[in-house]
Amino acid sequence: MQYIKNILLGIAFLWLGGQVAQGQFYSRTIANLPNFDMAKYNFGFYLGANQMMFTINPNTGFQYPRYYDKQISDIAADSASVYRVVGKPSPGFSVGLVGLVRWGNYFELRFVPGLEFGERSIDYTILTYIGDREQFITTNKSVVSTYINAPFHLRYKAVRIHNIRPYIYTGPAFKWDLSSQRKKHDNPNDLRLKMSRGDMAIDVGVGFDFYTNWFKFGVQMEMSYGLSDILIKQDNIYAQSIESIHAKVFQIIFTFE
Predict the structure, then answer these.
(1) CATH number where 23 lies
(2) Looking at the whole model, is its pTM more than 0.70?
(3) How does pLDDT run across 107-129, given as a tens digit for each residue?
(4) Please, what's the b/e burial string for 150-180 (b: 16 or more CB within 10 A of its CB; e: otherwise)?
(5) Which residues contact 220 (CB under 8 A, 6 or more apart)?
(6) Which residues is 3 bridged to in the sheet?
(7) Counted domains in the chain
(8) Residues 49-59: what's their mean pLDDT?
(9) In the chain, what is the greatest distance between 2 CA atoms, to the nearest angstrom?
(10) Is the pLDDT of residue 27 over 50?
């Protein structure tokens, strides 16, 4: 799958960065920005590439119910049943600010508010019935999202080795989807999946900080797991076949401090 390729690409990028830092270790005798991590507070910004995904939990026996009339108003059929439901991730990007409070030599609290832009979709394989004729069709339902993201992370930093310092982190994130269709006007002939605006997630990540002559540059990989069922229940073939949907976001993030 595409997001697995992105993960492998991120791992390769981090390994390459480690090799560069290791080369710096052997080729230089003076560390860059030696007192950078002594500051109580620090600020910066970040840019990232993300891949938004859905964790879909179909209803038990979702293949058996038949749907009629307004429940399938965008399908040219007398009735229809759902045969398969598959989520598809799509690439996006993120941008935001970094603010942190140093907590001893190895810990720091970070507030990294930002915006996440992306899109997710769900492919439905549907069995349609027109008179005595049966036919399979595939329909795609897209969900565009623009999240206001407000994460609070606790980061543990390992010992700095010359101009590189690895770290891990975790913490809650509060999200608000500006593109949610929850409050949009209902058109009975335009069946759409609607998602809740608000969500809460748990972030986990790993990365490396690289100290240059002028600033600290960080590269990290992060997974964000949504805790809430964000699906708005509706009386149509698409929503009724799904019990719950949870958001999930993978990101490769570049920080500048």
Answers:
(1) 2.40.160.20
(2) yes
(3) 999 999 999 999 999 999 999 99
(4) ebebebebeebebbbbbbebebebebebeeb
(5) 167, 205, 206, 207, 208, 252, 253, 255
(6) none
(7) 1
(8) 94
(9) 81
(10) no
